[in-house]
């Protein structure tokens, strides 16, 4: 089979099409014929050589968000049939720790994520497959898992409800757009930022109530406060946007952080945190149940996952270049 593999670390020039043996399912596994796999900033971190994958693992096939058709199943798998259309929940959990037993599974002590979807075939755990109805386009389904599950859980952790005002620094990417859309499903209003006026125009069309064109944290703080203090900050940028995200909260407001695109550390003004009864919460991914709920929203016509562009497998390098250039609004999806 063919796969888009990382053959070195650095830029998109290290993403090349390679041949691998056709996979066979082991016990408790299924092989999917991949119809669509979206990419995430997580994959870009790996390509850049920043995290998780070493030289000894090259060539490396990334890709966590996989939709496809079951082409083979392991002997002991009883709940699946070949030909079924499915979406992979990329969570990999131990099944035995306290959080696997009592929930939420996203807190699993040995939590990790599936990689390997940027290929014609992917071998996955059969119990991580969610059925996909004929009504859902596999490309739209593949946009959901990492970005929308993460945004969904963050909004829940921030207790966002009808009428709330939610601040989303960096609102045009995978997690950002998902947050704006899901906040709207919950009846909340949003303030989104981007360095690009053109991308903000698209974000407004997708339902953002207020937009701020800036990448400067101090300027953004001022602009948000002109609109009004927020109930929640949903923050995947980290770095200096964390201090701003805290400062613009109303008394008792919540900031949830899932990422550090703009930097791994931040200064927080502690008296703003404790005197104003604010909360800062960390969050990673969501549960397979969350993914099923998100698919229900899509099937019910209440959520339309935003796909910026579809790429053939041979142009996976271009998808990574578009993410690195920050030219996209929403998800970039490869169709092997
Ligand atoms: N913990 C978890 O479970 C989890 C799950 C998903 C994602 N994440 C993390 O969340 C972050 C977002 O992921 P994603 O896939 O949504 O990424 P993405 O699609 O690349 O996000 C693009 C957004 O980030 C902004 N941005 C990009 N680089 C920036 C920089 N250097 N400084 C400031 N803003 C920047 C862009 O702003 P412009 O519009 O101005 O270009 C755009 O709004 C990543 O750090 C990722 O690792 C964590
Ligand atoms: Zn566990």
In DSSP terms (H or I, runs of 4 or more residues), the helix count works out at: 11
- Overall form: globular
Which regions are unreliable across 5 or more consecutive residues at pLDDT < 50? Answer: none
What binds here, in terms of ligands, is:
NADP nicotinamide-adenine-dinucleotide phosphate, zinc ion
Quick one: how many beta strands?
A: 17
Percent helix: 25-40%
CATH class membership of the largest domain? Alpha Beta
Termini gap? 10 Å
Pfam family, one: ADH_N
Organism: Natrinema salsiterrestre
GO molecular function, one term: oxidoreductase activity, acting on the CH-OH group of donors, NAD or NADP as acceptor
Keywords: NADP
Which descriptors would you attach to this protein?
336 residues, alpha/beta, Quinone Oxidoreductase, Chain A, domain 1, 2 domains, seven-stranded mixed beta sheet, six-stranded parallel beta sheet, 11 helices, binds NADP nicotinamide-adenine-dinucleotide phosphate, binds zinc ion, anion binding, Zinc-binding dehydrogenase, Zinc-ADH_QOR/CCCR
Structural overview:
With 336 residues, the protein is of the alpha/beta class. The protein folds into two domains: 2-143 and 305-335, Quinone Oxidoreductase, Chain A, domain 1 (Alpha-Beta Complex); 147-282, Medium-chain alcohol dehydrogenases, catalytic domain (Quinone Oxidoreductase, Chain A, domain 1), CATH 3.90.180.10. Helix content is 29%, strand content 27%. It is built from eleven helices and 17 strands. Strands 3, 4, 5, 8, 9, 16 and 17 form a seven-stranded mixed sheet that branches. A six-stranded parallel sheet has the order 12-11-10-13-14-15, with helices on both faces. Helix 5 (174-185) links the parallel strand 10 and strand 11 (189-194). The protein is globular, with a radius of gyration of 20 Å. The termini are close together. The mean pLDDT is 97. The site of NADP nicotinamide-adenine-dinucleotide phosphate has 29 residues, from helix 1, helix 4 and helix 5.
């Amino acid at each position: 089979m063919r796969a888009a593999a990382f053959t070195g670390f650095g830029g998109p020039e290290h993403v090349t099409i390679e041949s691998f043996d056709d996979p066979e399912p082991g016990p408790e596994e299924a092989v999917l014929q991949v119809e669509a796999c979206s990419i995430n900033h997580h994959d870009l971190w790996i390509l850049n050589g920043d995290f998780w994958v070493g030289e000894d693992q090259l060539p490396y096939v990334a890709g966590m968000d996989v939709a496809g058709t079951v082409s083979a199943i392991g002997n002991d798998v009883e709940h699946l049939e070949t030909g079924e259309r499915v979406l992979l929940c990329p969570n990999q959990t131990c099944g035995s720790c306290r959080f696997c037993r009592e929930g939420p599974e996203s807190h699993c002590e040995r939590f990790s994520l599936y990689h390997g979807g940027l290929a014609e075939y992917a071998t996955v755990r059969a119990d991580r497959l969610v059925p996909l109805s004929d009504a859902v386009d596999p490309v739209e389904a593949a946009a959901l898992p990492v970005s929308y599950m993460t945004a969904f859980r963050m909004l829940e952790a921030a207790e966002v409800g009808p009428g709330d005002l939610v601040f989303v620094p960096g609102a045009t990417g995978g997690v950002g757009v998902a947050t704006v859309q899901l906040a709207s499903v919950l009846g909340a209003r949003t303030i989104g930022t981007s360095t690009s006026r053109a991308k903000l125009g698209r974000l407004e069309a997708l339902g953002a109530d207020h937009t701020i064109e800036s990448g400067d944290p101090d300027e953004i703080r001022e602009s948000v406060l002109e609109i009004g203090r927020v109930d929640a900050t949903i923050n995947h940028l980290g770095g200096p946007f964390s201090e701003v995200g805290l400062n613009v909260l109303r008394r008792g407001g919540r900031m949830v952080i899932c990422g550090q695109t703009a930097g791994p550390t931040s200064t927080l003004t502690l008296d703003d945190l404790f005197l104003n009864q604010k909360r800062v919460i960390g969050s990673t991914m969501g549960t397979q149940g969350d993914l099923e709920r998100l698919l229900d929203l899509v099937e019910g016509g209440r959520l339309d996952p935003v796909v910026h562009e579809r790429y053939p497998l041979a142009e996976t390098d271009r998808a990574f270049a578009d993410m690195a250039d920050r030219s996209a609004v929403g998800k970039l999806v490869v169709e092997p």
